[in-house]
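Deliverable D5.2: sample structural annotation.
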Amino acid sequence: MTFTAIVPVRDGSKGLPGKNTRPLAGTPLWQRAVDQARAAGAGRIVVSTDIQSILEASQPDDVVVLARPAELAGDTTPMAPVILHAINELNLTDTLVLLQCTSPLRGVADVTEGLDMFGKSQFDLVMSITEGDSSILKYGQLSRGRFVPLVDPSHPFSNRQSLPKVYRPNGAVYVFDAEWFRRNGGFQSDRIGAFQMPLERSGDIDTEQDFLRIEGLLLRQ
């Protein structure tokens, strides 16, 4: 499937400053995501960034570096407007694959699995997930002093072993159509497909400890 990869690379990070340009096992995080996109067969790779060194550097023909406005590069900026900015600025109309730099353990096979599932289904969006802790089903919200279970009223009083399995997005791969995303204005849909990635490939880098742990894994591999 012909597709365009989008790699968002923001300069600021409170948890680990400069993480996206920091070499991880010899390769900067953002470059690792670009290499994964290329290996998976991306026809074009869009790097959306506010980092001056990336904006000024020469890139291969398949990489388009898009300057991200300051208002889309804040700590609290959601991902949806960043994607919409790339779609509108570059008039993207094909299948898009979002690859976040902070998921470096993702493999090329994970990207192609997401693309294959998207191409064979009627889902608006396909994303990677990993198994989570079922104990979260015991949680609830507090409304004026009243405990409101998240899902099932029986879950807070069930043994953890009897709770159903739960899964969470791991942030590694998102596949969707550019025109659908433009019309929809974001990721929300009641037609989301998902494929499972193992926990050992679902690591996300937010802190120095995350960086060192994942770098150790890569070096051992």
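Annotation notes: The radius of gyration is 19 Å. The first strand starts at residue 3 and ends at 9.
The annotation will be released with the project's public dataset once the embargo ends.
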